[in-house]
Amino acid sequence: MMRQVSLGWHGPSVSEVCFGSLAISPLQGRVSLAEGVKVLRYALEQGIDWIDTAEIYDNYSQIAQALQHHPEVKLVSKSYSVTAQEMSASIEKARRELNRDVIDFFLLHEQESALTLKGHQGAWEELRKAKGDGRVKYIGISTHAVDAVKAGALLPDIDVIHPIINHQGLGIIDGTLEEMLAAIRFASELGIGIYAMKIFGGGHLAAHPQEALDFIRSIPWIQAMALGMSSVEEVDFNLKYLAGQEISEELRQSVTYRERKLYIADWCQGCGRCCEACPQSALSLEEVVGGGMVQAVVEAGQCVLCGYCGRVCPHFCLKIV
């Protein structure tokens, strides 16, 4: 039986591990639709009882297929909506495509600061309304920023925050690991549920998964973690390790993480859309030597391999390999 946790003072009881579905979504393209469904169903059979997705992941139909025999599983979705009208449409899209009358959690996606939250006030008010009329049970934000955790903790009716956190502080866009931990503690002490994202740093820390998992487990203000998994072996390794079970050398070797990177094809036209979409500011435009044009380049140390850039490229130049 997987360890159950209470997500904040007023949140539900959930498994310590949330299935992060970005890893099986078309946005990352690691596995086929059918393979992703297989992995997700396997994870649910092992006791994971909630799934993290987002409108941008474009995998609602994949999740709905996996959930055909698991109506008890809770769902988290997220949206970049700014206005109340946009948020209402996002909620309805999730309800319709996930075949759920009620979405368990709905979050403002990738908030950056108090100013960003202010700009999304209309969407937040619609989330509060949806919580009041029963379309959504719990509301919150996801973020890669210290300031957004601190400001988000003061939002009216907020239930949950989904921050980036890992033992090297990779991916935090506006501060240090220590500052993020202090912000998480502040939010948690207000009774807000905290579940961590990118604990493997987008793959940069995946060569030593035990250290990454142990770090999150050691933080008393974090109740749960979303883990992106794209194979049955990854599910087995993570859940066995967290349960304190013996891990065979064969299983350990099967999840030895190969280095992944963002590939930018040489036909890049230098439009800059990827740079605007990158939450980590890992992409920039540089002049091609002797070419008289610019192309996108990536700072590998800043990239967390989310794949958001590939979604906006009009020429399909970017992919994670």
TrEMBL record:
Annotated Pfam families: Aldo_ket_red, Fer4_7
Superkingdom of origin: Bacteria
This protein's record includes keyword Ion transport: no
Entry GO MF terms: iron-sulfur cluster binding; metal ion binding; oxidoreductase activity
Keywords assigned by UniProt, alphabetized: Iron, Iron-sulfur, Metal-binding
UniProt-listed InterPro entries: 4Fe4S_Fe-S-bd, 4Fe4S_Fe_S_CS, AKR, AKR2_Oxidoreductase, NAD(P)_OxRdtase_dom_sf, NADP_OxRdtase_dom
The keyword Iron-sulfur belongs to this UniProt entry's keyword annotation: yes
Residue intervals of the 4Fe-4S ferredoxin-type domain: 259-288, 294-321
Protein name (Swiss-Prot/TrEMBL): 4Fe-4S ferredoxin-type domain-containing protein
